[in-house]
Amino acid sequence: MLVNQFLLIAAFLFSLGVYGLIVRRNAVMVLLAVELMLNAVNINLIAFEAYLRSAQAVGQVFSIFVITVAAAEVGIGLAIVLMIFRNRASANVDDFNLMRY
Amino acid sequence: MQIGDWISQPVNWVYLPLALVLVYSGIRVVTSQNVIRAALFLVGALASTAGLFLLLSAEFVALTLVLVYIGAVIVLFLFGIMITRAPLGRDVALDHPSRTVGAGVAVALFGFLAFGSIQAFGSAEVQGIGEPTSTEVLGEALLGRFVVPFEVVSFLLLAALIGGITLARKDLSPAEEEAAGAV
Hints:
The complex is a heterodimer of chains A (101) and B (183).
Chain A: H1 4-23, H2 27-52, H3 58-88
Chain B: H1 3-7, H2 10-31, H3 35-55, H4 59-83, H5 100-120, H6 135-143, H7 147-168, H8 174-182
Helix pairs in contact in B: 2-3, 3-4
């Protein structure tokens, strides 16, 4: 197995995440795209760990940290989206202009 | 490395279906016009990612991914979709009308990343296929060398928990607050 076959698929997933982040209008869909990007980063970390084989499995440790932070991010992100939905009756990111100039 | 050599490694026969499922579900996550389907295709993408982790001999991380993402995060997403009353059928307004900007940025980014990784790791091979990382090593690293980040991350989870409760709590009107204080 080449390292590149994992790096390329991770790059593809990351680009899909960026596409979703730009194109989607529903805030929950934007969060789904962010999950794709974090997942791509995890694939990269694990592939580099398998390539370099560090003594303490550093790549795997960091991917566990990324998974934990992603879980916290989804919890808070969805809570914020629900809060805005309660106040504005919309989950469309175009309507969220409270902090705009 | 020639394509014939590549395909003659049995481990790549396992890789190919996983990669195809991953690419297809990833595309459907960002293009599906049905919100529930997009969330469920993310399950497919995450499950095949866990398969890739197993190929790269990272069992613990693969199982953590299944437990945390497919078990918890997706359920949270489905709750979020249901509570925000996202339209459950086909919804044409889910995307911005002009997708060309997003597609252009994504294609440019992919080209840049692919060029960089092909230049840097032309035909470098993954070491030690089928040599599992023992969870003992991982646990010792987490509670030894990486104990400070570990604690920071657990504090972050606590902060997220409290923040989620604070955000989701119903705001009381001044009269209700007084009544609650009197009890």
